[in-house]
Structure to design on (146 residues):
């Protein structure tokens, strides 16, 4: 059972203009707050997506840098072990041997060139001598015929 209402005017009274204005004002504030909340959520979502992308990029960059760092560490260990110096020494010795062979070959080429030049000069001299002898023989044969 309901308790009797002592002041029915409270239920039946007409809303006054001030209350209507207050309600409209509160509804406008509520709508503005809802709009601001939607904008804030959208902005936070964009920022979360952007930060997530940045975080992934940074993680990838860190992974690449760690790989590079490991490669450098391995190279440092290799250099510190002296293996690189030993390998360079081997290469140097091989290059020295190749250089000595080239020097010997160059000297042989120089001697062969000098020999060829001397042989060429001798050929020219012999050709001149042959031509002179042929000319003398021709002249002597002509004198004998006359």
């Amino acid at each position: 059972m309901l308790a009797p209402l002592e002041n029915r005017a409270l239920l039946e009274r007409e809303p006054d203009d001030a209350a209507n204005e207050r309600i409209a004002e509160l509804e406008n504030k509520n709508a503005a707050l809802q709009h601001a909340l939607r904008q804030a959520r959208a902005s936070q979502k964009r920022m979360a997506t952007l930060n997530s992308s940045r975080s992934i990029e940074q993680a990838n960059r860190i992974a690449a840098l760690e790989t590079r760092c490991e490669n450098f560490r391995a190279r440092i260990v290799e250099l510190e072990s002296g293996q690189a110096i030993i390998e360079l020494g081997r290469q140097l010795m091989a290059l020295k041997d190749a250089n000595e062979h080239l020097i010997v070959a160059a000297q042989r080429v120089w001697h062969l060139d000098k020999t060829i030049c001397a042989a060429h000069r001798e050929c020219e001299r012999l050709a001149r001598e042959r031509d002179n002898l042929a000319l003398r023989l021709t002249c002597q044969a002509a004198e004998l015929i006359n």
The chain has a mean pLDDT of 90. DSSP finds three helices and no strands in the chain. The radius of gyration is 55 Å. Residues 17-81 form the longest helix (65 residues).
